[in-house]
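Regression test case RT-17, inverse folding.

Input:
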């Protein structure tokens, strides 16, 4: 819980940093992913959703952990909310050759509406919610890529690919 509260403080600091400078970068660690599981568990349990994580970070990954956590939190929360009772939300974590981290959020919900798919591809404007806009902002800060697969009535998969970084995101 303490790390979760520190995360909230860091998100506030990160938001304010756009007006007063930057927040110190730290690498993404396995405990960051476990924190996300802890934060989302009550909502998944309330909705009757299985929240599964596959893969793990063998060592800290050199990227800016705070925006990665924020983007994943938004994607996972959207996936939990979009899944039917008894559904499954999966976060897959893998390091690819060339120093790229692949993070994939999959859910078996009703599929992603076309407006939101366009937004995630960078083709549309933000809708009424800020979740996807935050994901896109954080992904841009990390020089990351995104791919979206959505099969209505079957599944939605959002794949983030993040390059290793050694300097803070702008």
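Golden output:
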């Amino acid at each position: 819980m303490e790390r979760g509260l520190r995360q909230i403080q860091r998100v506030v600091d990160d938001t304010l940093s756009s007006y007063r400078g930057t927040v110190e970068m730290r690498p993404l660690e396995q405990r960051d992913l476990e924190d996300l599981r802890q934060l989302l568990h009550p909502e998944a349990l309330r909705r009757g959703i299985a929240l599964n994580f596959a893969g793990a970070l063998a060592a800290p990954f050199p990227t800016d952990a705070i925006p990665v956590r924020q983007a994943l939190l938004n994607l996972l929360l959207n996936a939990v909310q979009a899944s039917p009772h008894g559904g499954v939300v999966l976060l897959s974590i893998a390091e690819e050759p060339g120093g790229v981290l692949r993070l994939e959020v999959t859910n078996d919900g009703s599929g992603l509406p076309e407006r939101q798919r366009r937004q995630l591809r960078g083709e549309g404007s933000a809708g009424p919610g800020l979740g996807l806009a935050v994901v896109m902002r954080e992904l841009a800060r990390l020089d990351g890529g995104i791919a979206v697969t959505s099969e209505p009535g079957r599944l939605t998969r959002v794949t983030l690919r993040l390059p290793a970084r050694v300097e803070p995101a702008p």
